[in-house]
Write the structure tokens for this entry.
Amino acid sequence: MSGFGRISRWFPALGAVAFAASLAGCATPPPANDPDAVAEFRETNDPLEPTNRVVYAVNDKFDHYVFRPLAIGYKAVLPEPVRDHVHNFLGNLGMPVQMFNDILETHPRRAGDSLMRFVTNSTLGLGGIFDVATDLGWPDHDADGGITLALWGVSSGPYLYFPLFGPSSPREAGGMGIDYAINPFSWVGNDNTDKNIGYGKTFISALDARSRVLDDLDKITGQALDPYATIRSLYRQHRQSQIDDARDDSKATIPAWFPQRKSDAASGTKQQ
């Protein structure tokens, strides 16, 4: 099956989610004669809040009884250095997508960093197990389809909470489609072995990500008066920070060990 064919299989599912959300009901807007409430409602931008909260509650139960215990076991079984190597390897697999998004965002220097990270860590880093590139002057950065759409001027749209995926928005959902379409691994192979490898990578990536926020999520669910609203706010702040960093980035591709880079650093010259 072609890459487009595999992408198209998601369209009915996404449509079903949107249709179910519309049937489940929306948050009731405040009366127009209460300007403060209207302003807060617009700022929150969560018109599907009743549905989102139901999905959040289901996700939370699944996480509590299934995924959180798996993440705890993952941390208990594998020592931190091994987990870091797994994290590095998974990040290296995603570097082509990051580079293509850098190009789409018209950030050639960031694209150069991503390319050099992929080449360096795939070779000197033994397939990405070791992050050699950072020490050589090519640090990592955030770039994905959602950030790309934001830099293209696409508005975020209302807050959405998807089953399993968690916090999102229409723009982020579209960004996931972009990432899938430009991922070279999406277009390679179509037999059961390739599919199982892809499922395994997705599961391990999710487990790695969950294990890295165990303490933070425990604090939110245990201490926040409204964990749903807290997660919504933190998610938006984090994404906006990533977008701002990408928009304002002036990172150079000249490695730290290159004589010109050392000379500029000593003289206080900023790379453009």
Summary: The first helix runs from residue 3 to 8. Confidence is low (pLDDT under 50) at residues 1-24.
